[in-house]
Amino acid sequence: MIRIRTLASRHLCKRFYSHTPFDEYLDFPSGEPALEREQPATINSDPFDFSDIPIIKDDNNLFSSGLATPSNPLFAQSNSSMSPDSVLQEPITMTTEDFMQKLNIARSDQSFDEQKFKRFSSFLRTDTQVRQHNTRMQDIATIKNPLTVISEFNDPRLNLAIEKFIYDQMPDPLANSRSRRLVLYKNSPCVVIGKNQNPFREINFKEATIHGIPILRRYSGGGTVVHDLGNFNFSYMSSRQSFSRVEFTNALNHEINQLVGLDIGYDAPKFSLTTNDRGDIISSSSLKKVSGSAYQVSRGKSLHHGTMLLKSDLKMLSALLKLTEERKASIQDKSTDSIPSPVENLELSDTLFQFCAVEAFKRLHPAEGIEDMVYDNLLVQGDSHILKLNEVSDLPEEVLKTQHELSSWEWTIGKTPKFQLIVDDDEFQYQMTVEKGLITEIDSAEPDLDKLIGLPFSSEKISHVLTDPLKSHVMWHVDLNTRYAQLGISQLD
């Protein structure tokens, strides 16, 4: 309902906090028990803190599913399924040491297989021009065996669209216990917010505009992150029943820790990693975060996003997420806040990181069978497959459509949860209520502001309605006179 009221008194509304964005993504079939609901976040919460979320595992199926090798190694199908009696067990938490002890893993430099790494890096370097035929993503996305997809695109919206397509097309992991996925990619500089976040409380729009840094809203929850070419992203996809916020990161830590101090011709990590009690990957020595996470659970599937700071521009990261206290206080809402954490670069090469991620995935879902074989852009390892993407022609139309949708103002800004902009200074006083990106309510003694009702919360639109000095004042407080095209966001109609 749209209303116009008079600002009776100058005060700031009390801020409320919602459940974490994880809550919205729990999609349980009828009759299944739901994961325990979290308590509302407090002002000191960490957007990556999922310590209250149960971690569910099946002792009989955690690492041993699918050890049998199908007769046909390429596009083989697995008929194994999880037992209905073993779906939900007592929630547990696994530290890195617990994980390594369970699999009887010893920390040893001898575990690094240099020849295997050379074969993998050779596959990554394969020139597109020498290929006879490329495997298209849609032709392999539904395979019922472990699949890794390595995107060599750096367009952040295209990579998010690829990730969504892989998640949507992954066969039901309950009926097909081997249909797990790993997606690896790195983006050109951008800021990515969680689905339920308010960009006006998270991002320094002025800094993003000056540097032309795109702003994106992803499909999953979690906090705001800054990506650049020094940051690598991973997405581990499994079943809802086996969801764990530490399963993949602990396996990844093990692979990376074996490289500390090694001289192998690539930049090796300078320090070892561990997992803290919130599931974050941190430095074992400084305890600074090197990887933040976000999660999505829906349709019987689970997705664990992770960022890995390899050689990121940490100064730019800080600037893009730094807002004045006055700005943060002026935006009142129920969205999920990102609480900054000290971060540190791992100083690991891209190739070594990708190799470690692939090996961690294979450790969780081991493959048996033939020696590695390469089919143009597809590497086959037993019944597991690694697909490398760098040709737009290999992508389905659905991915390109999603990429376009992710650049729209309606998605990036219009999906912002309901909030109020409260301005109370010596010059003007007003309060705006914004829903779905539109100004729906005004509290002010300024009669001209009623012209804004129904308009998008955008200085570009406001500039055509008001006159100075009120116009300049409102435009600045709305979005710092942002031109959204400079942020990769399509113009409003």
TrEMBL record:
Pathway(s) annotated for this protein in UniProt: Protein modification; protein lipoylation via exogenous pathway; protein N(6)-(lipoyl)lysine from lipoate: step 2/2
Superkingdom of origin organism: Eukaryota
Gene3D superfamilies: Bira Bifunctional Protein, Domain 2
Xref: SUPFAM superfamilies: Class II aaRS and biotin synthetases
Transmembrane annotation, as ranges: none
Annotated BPL/LPL catalytic domain residues: 176-369
One Pfam family per UniProt: LplA-B_cat
Coiled coil: none
Its job: Catalyzes both the ATP-dependent activation of exogenously supplied lipoate to lipoyl-AMP and the transfer of the activated lipoyl onto the lipoyl domains of lipoate-dependent enzymes.
Family affiliation: Belongs to the LplA family.
Protein name per UniProt: Putative lipoate-protein ligase A
